[in-house]
Amino acid sequence: MSASGIFLGIDFGTSGARAIAISTDRQVQATASLKFDSDSKADWAAIWRQSLFALIAQIPLADRQDIKAIAINGTSSTVMICDAQGHLLDAPILYNDARGATVVEAVRAIAPMHHTVVSATSSLAKLLWWKAQIASGTLSTPATPYFLHQADWLAFWLHGKLGISDYHNALKLGYDVAALTYPDWLTSQNLPFRLPDVVAPGKAIAPITPSVATHLALPSSCLVCAGTTDSIAAFLASGAQSPGEAVTSLGSTLVLKLLSEGRVDDARYGIYSHRLENLWLVGGASNTGGAVLRQFFSESELEQLSQQIDPAQDSKLDYYPLTQPGERFPINDPHLLPRLSPRPGNPAEFLQGLLSGIARIEASGYALLQALGATPLKQVYTAGGGAKNRVWQSMRSRYLQVPVTPSAQSEAAYGTALLALQGYINSQ
Question: Do 237 and 368 touch, CB atoms closer than 8 A?
């Protein structure tokens, strides 16, 4: 069936939010963005909700009136608890908040060995931290409050149905993405929360509420679809879709995601698999990356010095570039020291050593994923700031022994718009 119309993806990142509207043929029709104006005492929930409606309002009226479906992504493991009307009972706990360290042994006691929830920042650790606050009387809540992820809660303000999540966001809560159900080891815990009902990412949940349709001049038939996480949305935007295709994000850190026919999970290296329909997205993240380069070079220096490097030549420098001690993947060693010496007098030679070191770590990361059972690597798409460096791209392709190309699209909001498009098509 034809999906003629506009499809809106909204990305809630760490410092701002972005919306991208695409047509049926996946062409970008409109964009909007907002920076979060906040401080350490910010009311994050209010900022997110205001930004959601403000972003949609920024889309030109002609496009807005033709929106057929909307989907939202949020930062993984940013969570909240709320009452039956969606009003928060405590401040949200952000994705990188490690207060769950105080209950991580309780997580370890109930979860399978090496499970991805065994982390101070997992959704389940945050849930158990709230459970402890309720048990101690520090936090008072109504009977059985809702536990939601950022994307779940924001979508509620559009469709009005509370307590629905997707299996990308629910992975770090402990949801079994293979069996598509909550596992017995979790449901047997007598938790003082209502866990969200979990559906496939992109599944149409309900039309927007009449009040939202009127307020934002949206068609009353506009569907709100289940969302995803920001990193999965960025993968969807890349164009990768076959087993063996991967996306490397070259931002401040180095993040690898490989599409695989087999699932790989190993908390020792921070490796876990997201379900993508009938395939698995196997991922790992190193502490190396662009932050190391920026310690020594400006953007203009990186560009100029890269042109002096022959990407076909190996560097004689054996670096392991880190900004500080500690690595998680492909080496799990919290005390691993940065290796950045000897430092040659020629800055281009020094840069080549750094780029080669990061490229070797990337190659080792993909080798580890494959050694643990992932589909062999055949193509790498690159996103993030480092994707612009063609010399580095050529060096990485040589180490990886597969083609390396920039992602077709790098914005997570674009990947979420694709999710809305697919969700609409599947609903017809």
Answer: no
User: For residue 272, which of 382, 380, 171 has the smallest C-alpha distance?
Assistant: 171
* pTM as predicted: 0.90
DSSP class of residue 39 equals -
Contact between 175 and 87 under an 8 Å Cβ cutoff? The reply is: no
Closest C-alpha to 392, from 361, 346, 358: 358
- The residues with which 247 forms a beta bridge, in sequence order, are 257, 381
AA letter at 122:
S
Asked if residues 247 and 259 have their Cβ atoms less than 8 Å apart, the reply is no
Burial call 190-226: b when 16+ CB within 10 Å, e when fewer? ebbbbbbebbbbbbbbebbbeebbeebebbeebbbbb
List the one residue out of 13, 14, 5, 15 whose CA is nearest residue 59: 5
Condensed to tens digits (0 to 9), the pLDDT of residues 384-416 reads 888 889 999 999 999 999 999 999 898 999 999
HSE of 389 in the Cβ direction (CA atoms, 13 Å)?
31
Q: Where are the alpha helices (DSSP H) in 160-306?
A: 184-187, 210-216, 230-238, 290-296, 299-306
Residue 235: half-sphere exposure toward Cβ, Cα within 13 Å:
25
